[in-house]
Design brief:
The protein has six domains: 98 residues, Ubiquitin-like (UB roll) (Roll); 75 residues, Ubiquitin-like (UB roll) (Roll); 86 residues, membrane protein fhac (Ubiquitin-like (UB roll)), CATH 3.10.20; 76 residues, membrane protein fhac (Ubiquitin-like (UB roll), Roll); 72 residues, Ubiquitin-like (UB roll), CATH 3.10.20.310; 245 residues, membrane protein fhac: a member of the omp85/tpsb transporter family (Porin). 17% of the residues lie in helices and 44% in strands. It contains 13 helices and 32 strands. The strands form six sheets. It has a 16-stranded antiparallel β-sheet. Strands 7, 8, 9 and 10 form a four-stranded mixed β-sheet that branches. It has a three-stranded mixed β-sheet with strand order 1-3-2. α1 packs antiparallel against α3. The longest helix has 18 residues. The two termini are 69 Å apart.
């Protein structure tokens, strides 16, 4: 292949010299350029080429300009050779640029790649299908392939490239890979560490020696980027334990070709450990010295921790930003005392000027109306900036569950003392038709269909039509909610439902409707009040064998109930939370229409907390009490039952709670339930968990000795453990769990499988 430009430059220089010296009379270069022609550019866009040619018609010919034209066009990378032909016409000079185009890449072929996915390699290469072939890209591509293999532990991979010439000036580029044998990390060695064991330091870095599990996980290989980061990780670990003058040298990497192993050695000079000495901070008219000191969790005599100190500085900066000082600068000064091995800390806040909100810009909301989002903002344009209100605003928008992601960018207009807030959202599908099939040992096949809009026509309204059916269940419901009446924190809704469930001894049919209103009582708190009217029917399946309790419950009844509730919810996500808590209180009083008179009280508490890495802990507790009044019994269809995916997993409603004299489940008047989960996020949409559940239903009507009339007896509870997954699918959150009884009784199954669609506890 020609090395084109130097040849072209030489050719032009020689031509110009010849024309100027021996054939000057043949062409009159004083004539203007009359035409500029382009030949040979079949694939390249001629307009693009003309853009880089600065020689113009009507202007005098200039040899230097034409040389620069050729140089600029050649840099485009489209051509192997560029020549210039000059002809004299009566009206002037005709310049013809004659191009020899580079071949076009028809296909990229990867041969011999087995241990690395081909798409992973292809997307990293500079040579692209459907572009001009660049010979200078080949060494880069070969080096990139080798790097990809090195990150997988293949240090002796060889790559050669063959270019296959085809018709129509096309080529196929074939990369032939000889992977070689994989080399794994045999051992990671630490030298100079006295304060911390090798095992402790190994836990701080990403680079690990290969284990038997590396075959599955793909670990045990050396990544150079990770190795560089490991040096910083070790230094940070020492800094957080008082060793502020630690030195970690670049690791030494030794390769044993015969054993196909890598040995890595970190050399550490720890030096002395330092403790916190005097702490001084300057107060001002915004915060006193004492108020600022409360933000510094490091105390005199503590081991100095750089990360904690950095967080303390951030907390002080955030305090000022909550008062409008968005550009506050807190200057920390660390003064080591080598003799005393202490670190004195001096903090100087520089608050700057107050800043106000400029424009609030919302992008990405193609369906959702601006006002639906803006009413979640606690800040308004022209208002004093407050970082805490901004964080809460983002959380409130995220909790709407209309968006895949919610990002806020602050754009400073410091010269005007303004900050523009740009909210970027990516909408998720909020109009859904879902159909699912589940299974439980009680209901066998469970079919669920739902037509649901959680953001109806972009107005933030919620409309759902739901059908649940199984061998025991037939439920139908329509629900509509307006979450922001008059664009205020007022909600309203209406429900119409028909529910039927067949227990072992009776069938319960319930149909009716409800009206709901709600009001925001705080940043995370809502109060609601509803009225519900129902027609209820209890049908005994085997009257001749029915217990006295069930026979008293038989027949048609009506009930009208008021049901107030209060909810506090600061979880960071309604479906897939990692932190925050939800507290729920509910009361129902029947007797306002209809012939039933009963009350019901329910209290729930749920806490999520990030533990370490991607692990999340969840604790849930629920207590409930219900009974009749004015001489009326609690209806069996209002009694509490337990067992299943949202209570104590591993059990069915038959296993927990009171039984009549025939051994039939009849529900109880009190309930106590605890759930613990350890969750791990594999991806944003997929989470596995271990769980321990404990609970019971209590009643004074138990005849089967299956529970106790001593309500909330912590010693008389059933319990289980198990595993499961949470998956956020297009049809909504799905949970699959398998629970195992820890106190299996006679005639009970040892375990139960559960499948549900819906949110978290």
């Amino acid at each position: 292949m020609k090395r084109v430009w130097p040849g072209a430059g030489f050719y032009i220089s020689l031509l110009l010299f010849a024309l100027a010296s021996s054939s000057a009379s043949a062409i009159d270069f004083s004539k203007p350029v009359n035409k500029i022609l382009i030949e040979g550019a079949s694939r390249a866009d001629k307009n693009t080429v003309r853009f880089y040619i600065h020689s113009k018609t009507g202007k005098p010919y200039n040899a230097k300009t034409t040389q620069e034209d050729i140089r600029r066009v050649y840099k485009l990378g489209f051509f192997d050779d560029i020549r210039l032909d000059v002809r004299e016409d009566p009206d002037g000079l005709t310049l013809t640029f004659i191009f020899t185009e580079k071949p076009f890449v028809r296909e990229k072929i990867l041969t011999g790649a087995k241990e690395v996915d081909e798409s992973t390699i292809q997307e990293k290469l500079k040579t692209k299908k459907g572009t001009y072939f660049r010979q200078d890209f080949i060494p880069w591509d070969e080096a990139k392939i080798k790097q990809i293999y090195r990150n997988k532990g293949y240090y002796f991979t060889e790559v050669r490239t063959v270019v296959h010439k085809l018709d129509n000036n096309q080529v196929d580029v074939e990369y032939i890979v000889d992977e070689g044998k994989k080399i794994i990390i045999g051992k990671v060695i630490f030298r100079g560490n006295e304060a911390f064991s090798n095992k402790t330091l190994q836990g701080q870095i990403e680079t690990k020696a290969a284990k038997w599990t590396s075959v599955i996980s793909g670990g045990g290989g050396l990544k150079k980027d990770a190795l560089k980061a490991d040096v910083l990780r070790l230094e940070s670990f020492y800094h957080d334990n008082g060793y502020i003058k630690v030195k970690v040298k670049d690791p030494v990497v030794e390769i044993d070709k015969e054993k196909r192993k890598i040995y890595i050695r970190f050399s550490i000079t720890e030096n002395s450990q330092y403790h916190v000495g005097d702490i001084s901070i300057q107060g001002d008219e915004v915060y006193s010295k004492e108020e600022l000191l409360e933000s510094i969790t490091l105390k005199k005599g503590d081991v100095f921790n750089r990360s904690v100190f950095r967080k303390n500085i951030f907390n002080i900066t955030d305090l000022y930003s909550q008062k409008g000082y968005a550009f506050a600068n807190v200057k920390p000064r660390i003064i080591p005392n080598d003799a005393a091995r202490t670190v004195s800390v001096n903090v100087t806040p520089m608050k700057g000027r107050k800043v106000y909100i400029g424009k609030i810009i919302i992008t990405g909301n193609n369906r959702t109306r601006d006002r639906v989002i803006r009413r979640q903002f606690l800040l308004q344009e022209g208002e004093l900036f407050d970082s805490e209100k901004l964080r809460i605003s983002r959380q409130r928008i995220n909790s709407l569950a209309y968006f895949e992601s919610v990002e806020i960018e602050q754009k400073s207009r410091q010269e005007e003392d303004l900050i523009d807030i740009e909210l970027k959202v990516i909408e998720r599908q909020t109009g859904q038709f879902s159909f699912s099939v589940g299974y439980s040992s009680v209901e066998t096949i469970v079919l669920q269909g739902q037509l649901r809009w959680t953001n109806l026509m972009g107005r933030g309204q919620n409309l759902s039509l739901t059908v649940n059916t199984s061998s025991r269940r037939n439920d139908y419901s329509v629900s509509f909610t307006e979450p922001a009446l008059f664009d205020r924190r007022l909600s309203g809704g209406i429900d119409v439902f028909n529910r039927e469930f067949q227990y072992d001894a009776f069938r319960s049919r319930r149909g009716g409707g409800s009206l709901r209103v709600g009001r925001g009582l705080g940043q995370y708190t809502w109060g609601r009040l509803g009225y519900k009217y129902e027609n209820n029917n209890v049908i005994i399946l085997k009257k001749e064998n029915a217990s006295f309790f069930l026979r008293r419950q038989e027949g048609k009844r009506t009930s009208g109930s008021f049901y107030p509730s209060v909810t506090y919810d600061d979880r960071n996500d309604p479906f897939n939370p990692t932190k925050g808590k939800k507290i729920y209180g509910y009361a129902q009083l029947s007797g306002f229409g209809g012939n039933e008179k009963f009350y019901k009280l329910i209290a729930e508490y749920t806490q999520y907390r990030s533990i370490f890495f991607d692990f999340v802990g969840m604790f849930h507790a629920k207590a409930a009490r219900a009974d009749g009044y004015s001489g009326r019994d609690l209806p069996v269809f209002e009694s509490f039952f337990m067992g299943g995916p949202r209570s104590v997993r591993g059990f069915t409603y038959r296993d927990i709670g009171p039984l009549d004299e025939n051994g039939e489940a009849i529900g109880g008047e009190a309930l106590l339930q605890f759930n613990l989960e350890l969750q791990y996020s594999f991806t944003k949409f997929f989470r596995g968990f271990l769980f321990y559940d404990r609970g019971n239903v209590y009643s004074k009507n138990d005849k089967g000795n299956n529970t106790t009339d001593k309500f909330y007896d912590l010693g008389d509870m059933r319990h289980s453990w198990g595993v499961g997954i949470h998956f956020f699918s297009p049809m909504g959150p799905i949970s699959i769990a398998y629970g195992f009884k820890l106190d299996k009784r006679k005639n009970e199954t040892p375990s139960e499988f559960h499948f549900t669609i819906g949110g978290a506890f």
